[in-house]
Specification:
about 290 residues; Ubiquitin-like (UB roll); 13 strands
């Protein structure tokens, strides 16, 4: 009987030890899980104008610069980036070493000052989820350090119904001003890529956008030295007001710019006080 009792006691001890080792094994795995491989975020084909500040903003929105590469990493990063107004149509893919971020970027063209804050403005492009062909809009962006683009201040706008950051703003005078800046940017690419005219431009005043003051230009541009450039009717509406066409206005402005050694800062260089673009330089035949 004593031998049987000893055998039973030994079996129980072994069983208890096995259970104990089982608990210890689970504790070790819980306390020291197998490490997931880590990968760094990589922006795929970002625009040339991207700055370190914007890269930092993207990383902050994503949740950092490096991530554990798990099955849900791409989905989680994409969901976080959807809340960042600077980018849209975001697609995220993970490899064994990196987190690739593909996205479309909203390019700021202008800024406004309202409520003691400064905001950037970008045109809503086709393909943007908030784009509407029937109602062109701009999108409001928070201000960051951005020294790679000329940012033109818009003045004289009605400071009402301004959306929150990331929201679309359907204000005709704002949209028209951005469309004009966009056209000037295209002209720079074509005719003056090395010395962009936009670098000389400081502001656009739209306070008379609705033509309340009949004899005053609806839209006025200002060079950085304060030179007044009387553009006139909102872009695309010159014929309604018997002004020079948009093409002639652009030709006149850029011809002046080239003839004066790539500047529209006329006051600074003692050239003139203002540049008038509203009146056609063409001579039309009249009946006798």
């Amino acid at each position: 009987m004593k031998k049987i009792a000893a055998v039973v006691a030994g079996v129980c001890c072994l069983g208890g030890a096995a259970v104990g080792f089982g608990y210890m094994e689970r504790y070790v795995h819980a306390a020291s899980p197998v490490a997931q491989p880590a990968g760094y975020m990589e922006l795929i084909s970002p625009p040339r104008w991207i700055t370190e500040a914007l890269q930092k903003r993207i990383a902050e929105a994503a949740g950092g610069y490096s991530f554990e590469l798990g099955a849900d990493t791409a989905r989680d990063v994409a969901l976080r980036l959807e809340r960042l107004p600077w980018i849209y149509n975001t697609r995220v893919r993970t490899t064994d070493k990196t987190v690739h971020v593909h996205a479309e970027y909203r390019k700021p063209l202008a800024c406004i000052k309202a409520g003691g804050q400064e905001y950037y403005l970008a045109l809503v492009r086709p393909g943007d989820p908030i784009h509407s062909a029937d109602s062109p809009k701009v999108v409001l962006l928070d201000r960051i350090e951005l020294n790679t683009l000329p940012i033109i201040e818009i003045k004289g706008f009605a400071a009402k119904n301004i959306p929150p950051v990331g929201g679309a703003w359907d204000a005709p005078e704002i949209t028209s001003a951005l469309e004009l800046i966009n056209v000037l940017g295209h002209m720079d690419e074509i005719s003056s890529p090395d010395n962009p005219l936009l670098n000389d431009l400081g502001a656009i005043d739209v306070k008379n956008f609705n033509g309340k003051f009949r004899n005053d230009p609806h839209v006025v541009l200002y060079a950085k030295d304060g030179t007044e450039i009387r553009w006139g009717a909102a872009y695309g509406t010159s014929r309604l007001y018997m002004e020079a066409t948009e093409q002639e206005k652009l030709a006149t402005l850029y011809t002046f710019y080239k003839e004066h050694k790539n500047t529209i800062q006329c006051i600074k260089h003692n050239i003139c006080q203002l540049i008038e673009l509203r009146y056609s330089q063409k001579i039309f035949p009249r009946p006798e």
